[in-house]
Write a structure and sequence with these properties.
heterodimer; A: alpha/beta; Rossmann fold; 9 helices; B: mainly alpha; MetI-like fold; 0% strand
């Protein structure tokens, strides 16, 4: 679906953010980019989103050349680290935004907004303003806004990083259920090993200085995954393995 | 909790009113006790009597000054907003033109008002233009800052959704700029009145089109200090009313969503 081949990024100030990175995300996968701060996870996600241009390398979409087609025609959705909602607009208007920008007819757009809000359990909050919602609910609105276009690929940049542990766990479960029910393809950035194990079909472990993928670890545990899985031996084993990989890369970088 | 809110609201008016009563009472006592002549410092009672006696003359003059100030505020708001919208189209445009907006701000109006009055034949238009020069800068600078101060995440979202420049401007930049714009409008409301008064001083326009500034000049020449004070009171009241109106409009526009206007519980 998306093939990242030898993608590099060096910023204008000379900082090498990404060494050549190769990664493939197939349809229906939930792939997490896991690594410490500054390892280039968000840069890689921004390159896939078309927000940052790679210095070298290629990005192929569904077999097509990304460089020549850009993101046009691809339903791509992005969920940022913060909810990034329009504070002056009500929840339904925020969720409808991508449809409005694409000039989707009002009735169809309203239908899609209703469905998206129902998916994240916020159907009763359509006429609320973002400031009237909790942090977790605002993030759900952000997810509804991403889902309203029925995206081919959902990019998520540490969306639950700023939330408390309880809300984060609940939203992880809801996201996992949505992914399974809607057949989404997700590329998810996180620095939480527990979260990556719980959510992913595959975890790409990244190391810093320069940012690169050092391991591609499948999490071969069936879905749905629940609280029992979170505290299971299997999850702990995967967590230990990923933790060792991240720690090893950190030690190598410091050496 | 409702009682606490009501008390806070009442205090907002009662506290400054109490200060006013105190100051006016002290002023009245001092002028009475020391028997200060009205042509030096008139007592509040004398000023109030003058306000009643010369009411028609003073109100007509207030009408002239307020018309100039309001027209200037409207023109400054329109031109200032258009200039800000132009500036955010490109850094090059802003870099080329912004120094000239600063020039308007730093040039004393008393220095250029005589030129404007000579160049513009219609006196009212000349006075309005002088007041616009004084009032326009906060609108331009605040609105430009607001149009640029958009949430970077939201801007990325709009770009990813392939929004046009027009969509980004109307759906993102303009709403984001509203709190900044209203901040500029509050400052500009006072400046437009100051500009109108200064321009009237320089023009020295008399007759039926005379504003409060001319009345102050004339009262000074005639040593009619109570009328001078009465005119000053009206200018101050007009300034407060203009400021209050902009605060009200700002509250109406922003109180639903912006931190600056949200009512917080004590």
């Amino acid at each position: 679906m998306v093939a990242i081949a030898a993608v590099e990024k060096t910023f204008a100030n000379g900082t090498a953010a990404l060494a050549p990175v190769d990664l493939v995300v197939r349809r229906g996968e939930f792939v997490s980019l896991l690594g410490p701060s500054g390892c280039g996870k968000s840069t890689l996600l921004n390159i896939v989103a078309g927000l940052v241009a790679p210095s070298r390398g290629t990005l192929a979409w569904w077999g097509g050349d990304f460089a020549s087609t850009g993101v046009s025609g691809r339903r791509l959705a992005f969920v940022f680290q913060s909810p990034t909602l329009m504070p002056w607009a009500r929840v339904d208007a925020n969720v409808r935004l991508p449809l409005d920008l694409a000039h989707v007819e009002r009735a169809a757009a309203d239908r899609a907004v209703g469905e998206a809000l129902a998916l994240v359990g916020l159907e009763g909050f359509a006429r609320h303003l973002p400031r009237e919602l909790s942090g977790g609910m605002q993030m759900r609105v952000s997810i509804a806004r991403a889902l309203v276009t029925a995206p081919d690929l959902l990019l998520m940049d540490e969306p639950f990083g700023a939330l408390d542990e309880f809300t984060r766990s609940r939203l992880d479960e809801e996201l996992s259920a949505l992914w399974a029910a809607r057949g989404l393809t997700v590329l998810f950035v996180t620095h939480s090993i527990v979260e990556s194990v719980f959510l992913s079909t595959r975890v790409a472990v990244m190391a810093a200085r320069p940012g690169r993928v050092i391991a591609d670890v499948p999490i071969d545990v069936p879905f749905p995954r629940d609280d029992a899985f979170r505290v299971s031996t299997t999850a702990a084993e995967h967590g230990r393995h990923l933790s060792a990989l991240v720690a090893g890369a950190g030690a190598a970088a410091r050496a | 909790m409702k009682n606490a809110d009501a008390t806070t609201r009442a205090l907002r008016f009662l506290a400054p009113a109490a200060v006013a009563v105190l100051v006016v009472g002290l002023w009245q006592s001092l002028t009475t006790v020391y028997d200060v002549p009205a042509y030096i410092v008139p007592s509040p009672l004398v000023v109030a009597q003058t306000l009643l006696q010369d009411g028609a003359l003073l109100l007509r003059a207030l009408g002239v000054t307020l018309t100039i100030a309001l027209a200037a505020l409207a023109v400054a708001t329109l031109l200032g907003t258009l200039a800000a919208l132009l500036f955010v189209q490109s850094r090059w445009i802003e870099m080329s033109l912004f120094p000239y907006a600063v020039l308007l701000q730093v040039t004393p109006i008393v220095a250029i008002a005589p030129l404007i009055i000579i160049w513009v034949k219609d006196t009212t238009a000349a006075l309005v233009l002088c007041a616009v020069v004084v009032a326009i800068f906060p609108i331009i600078s605040n609105t430009t800052l607001g149009l640029r101060s958009v949430d970077p995440g939201l801007l990325d979202f709009f770009r990813m959704a392939r929004a046009s420049r027009w969509q980004i401007l109307t759906r993102l930049r303009v709403p984001s700029a509203l709190p900044y714009f209203f901040g500029g409008l509050r400052i500009a409301s006072g400046l437009s009145l100051i500009g109108a008064v200064v321009a009237e001083f320089v023009a020295g326009t008399g007759g039926s089109g005379a504003g409060l500034a001319y009345l102050i000049l004339l009262s000074g020449f005639q040593l009619n200090v109570p009328r001078l004070f009465a005119a000053l009171v009206l200018i101050a009241a007009a300034g407060v009313a203009l400021f209050g109106a902009t605060v009200w409009v700002s509250k109406r526009a922003l109180s639903r969503w912006h931190e600056s206007e949200l009512e917080r519980e004590a």
